[in-house]
Amino acid sequence: MRKIFLLLIAPIILLTATQCKQGEKESNDGKWKLVWEDDFKGKDIDETKWARIPRGQSDWNNYMSDHDDLYEVKDGQLILRGIQNTIEPNDTAPFLTGGVYTKDKKNFGFGRLEIKAKLNPAKGAWPAFWMLPVDTKWPLGGEIDIMERLSHDRMIYQTIHTQYTLKHGIKDNPPSSTVVGINPDKFNVYAIEKYPDSLVFYINDTKTKNYPRIDTDIEEQFPFADHDFYLLLDMQLGGSWVGAVNPDELPVEMMIDWVKFYELNEEHQEGVK
């Protein structure tokens, strides 16, 4: 998530839909079939599904750590934390953050991915759920930002990045980002549906954004159909987009209740290869 500040975003969508029920997609006219999930019912992170994100040099991962204080599986939830660094005296980072991804564990193709989560606020907190292609470097293959929240905002961002939006700077045809109002005091379900010709975003089963393939000669407008993606869930702190962190508001947590991936049932797969 090498964040490029968005110069153009769609108007804010005020979301008032009720939360969708667990397992609801399995009875949605038989369209979807649940094929992968983690409901965090154990005592530890399932290492067959997730790995802790290592530190990097970008805003989003420059405080990442595998320290156990940043991770907890409790009461059927995965808890990821951002804290002031008082626990690693040999680490010069002022803050430490926790994040997990499915890289080299699970790849996602066409289908519907859902994350049910609650995002606690702090100034400088930047929790995110997003996806990167498994077989190419950023930004080739694209980036799918299912959810990003900044500090105490009562809204989230849903965005795509590609060569089309970055190299060529085309962010309005079609719109590459949407801002959606949420109730951050409750659990919400964030979802993305990936098809050969579109990405469709949802919150609490209400459609919030559609990013289609369009007829254009400009390269990489819709690279998403050509790659499988892995999922990242991370609590981030600070950076050029979210701004400075207030240490007095730390630690900050996000709680993930479950993650589910559905594929289309056979009778609904026409045109999906």
Structure summary:
1% of the residues lie in helices and 37% in strands. It is mainly β and 273 residues long.
List keywords for this structure.
nine-stranded antiparallel sheet; eight-stranded mixed sheet; mainly beta; 273 residues; Jelly Rolls
What features would you describe in this structure?
With about 270 residues, the protein is mainly beta. It has one domain (about 35-265): Jelly Rolls (Sandwich). The chain is built from one helix and 17 strands. It has one helix at about 165, and strands at about 15, 30-40, 50, 70-75, 75-85, 95, 100, 110-120, 130-135, 145-150, 155-160, 175-180, 190-195, 200-205, 205-210, 230-235, 250-265. Strands 2, 4, 5, 6, 8, 13, 14, 15 and 17 form a nine-stranded antiparallel beta sheet that branches. An eight-stranded mixed beta sheet has the order 1-12-11-10-9-16-7-3. The model is unreliable at about 5-10 and about 15-25 (pLDDT under 50).
